[in-house]
Automatic annotation (TrEMBL):
Keywords, sorted A to Z: DNA-binding, Transcription, Transcription regulation
Keyword Cytoplasm: no
Species of the source: Kaistia geumhonensis
One Pfam family matching this protein: LacI
Record flagged with keyword Zinc: no
Superkingdom assignment: Bacteria
Domain HTH lacI-type: 11-66
PROSITE patterns: HTH_LACI_1, HTH_LACI_2
PANTHER family, A to Z: HTH-TYPE TRANSCRIPTIONAL REGULATOR GALS, LACI-RELATED TRANSCRIPTIONAL REPRESSOR
Protein's name according to its UniProt entry: DNA-binding LacI/PurR family transcriptional regulator
A GO term for molecular function: DNA binding
Lineage per the UniProt record: Bacteria, Pseudomonadati, Pseudomonadota, Alphaproteobacteria, Hyphomicrobiales
Record Gene3D superfamilies: 3.40.50.2300, lambda repressor-like DNA-binding domains
């Protein structure tokens, strides 16, 4: 005898209609954006009941008879409306899309702020066969978002999050950002750098948290004598990075090294130094992270850590296809290595 609660029945369109005191056709009109037929008050009432009942739209019966769901959802939780302008995100999405495309699957991409995940259309319907996600925000916010996705009872892959959920239909795929942070620290300590300045975006990302953690581990293993200061830029834009570096250096001496959370941040800091007659690497050493093609255009060539962003997307695509074929993920975590690329800035 077990004490397990009976499985909860999924809410149907008729349940929503009854709770909102409208017809099923009115609910359908709200779900499909046919708002010319629905008053604002009725729309609001229907949406409230959809949320309360946890209703998620299912692909129509004809589609389910003809073919399985052949689309995967990619959720990008990012405060920036230009979320696809990020090099790392683009590489991950490209790798994922190409693997899925080769298996005749489509990829549905939706970017949103963290507070929009709960009510986003992509999480309220059954028109995708599984979810991949890249999530920014505090640790607590990210964990809440992951729980929300896992509770949808569909396979979930999360990028760059150092987390495992035994027993859940879940897989975490990331690169060794912490190891990359240690490589940076070891490289600079070998060059007798004692004063480190890290420039990060104000928006929290798990990968950047891991890079800083690895850097701190390297400094601690060296006896803890080196100093690390972390400053946050309002965004990753060129202007915001240069502004925060300028404000810091107005009140502090030059550090031995500036570490950008990614290559564009490092490059913006380096160009600020050039404009103020600071020599790189003679006066200040500069290190970035990610090693995408654009970093090769900087002169001197930027020292960086090469990311496996495209391969992360490919790995996720293969893992999702295998999961849909076998009914389970072969493993709940996959960590790809990173590689240190010594340029001319250190």
């Amino acid at each position: 005898m077990t004490n397990e609660a009976p499985a909860r029945r999924r809410a149907t369109i008729k349940d929503v209609a009854k709770a909102a005191d409208v017809s099923p056709m009115t609910v359908s009109n709200v779900l499909n954006g046919r708002l010319q037929y629905v008053s604002a008050a009725t729309k609001k009432r229907v949406e409230r009941e959809i949320e309360r009942l946890g209703y998620r739209r299912q692909a129509n019966a004809r589609n389910l008879r003809v073919a399985e769901q052949r689309s995967i959802g990619m959720v990008i939780v990012d405060e920036s409306p230009a979320f696809l302008a990020d090099f790392f995100t683009c590489q991950v999405v490209a790798g994922l899309a190409n693997v899925l495309n080769s298996a005749d699957y489509t990829l549905t991409v939706q970017g949103m702020r963290g507070d929009q995940l709960e009510t986003s259309m992509i999480t309220r319907n059954f028109e995708v066969g599984g979810f991949c996600a890249m999530i920014a925000g505090s640790g607590e916010e990210r964990r809440a978002a992951i729980r929300r996705l896992v509770d949808l009872d569909q396979p979930v892959i999360v990028f760059q999050e150092p987390i495992t959920l035994p027993g859940a239909d879940f897989c975490a795929i990331r690169q060794d950002d912490r190891g990359g942070g240690r490589l940076i620290g070891d490289h600079l300590l070998a060059r007798r750098v004692e004063d480190f300045l890290a420039v990060v975006p104000a928006q929290d990302w798990p990968a950047i948290e891991e890079r800083l953690a690895g850097l701190r581990e390297s400094l601690a293993a060296n006896g803890g004598g080196a100093r690390l200061t972390v400053i946050a830029s309002a965004s990753e834009s060129f202007a915001d990075v240069q502004d925060v570096v300028a404000r810091h250096l107005a009140d502090h001496p030059l550090p031995g090294a500036i570490i950008g959370a990614n290559d564009p941040i490092a490059t913006a800091a380096m160009l600020y130094l050039f404009d103020h007659d600071v020599r790189v690497p003679d006066d200040v050493r500069i290190v970035g992270f990610n090693g995408f093609e654009a970093h090769r255009y900087a002169r001197p060539r930027l020292t960086t850590v090469d990311s496996a962003a495209y391969q992360l997307g490919e790995q996720a695509g293969r893992a999702m296809l295998e999961r849909l074929e076998s009914g389970r993920f072969a493993r709940n975590e996959c960590v790809l290595p990173v590689h240190f690329d010594a340029g001319a800035t250190t």
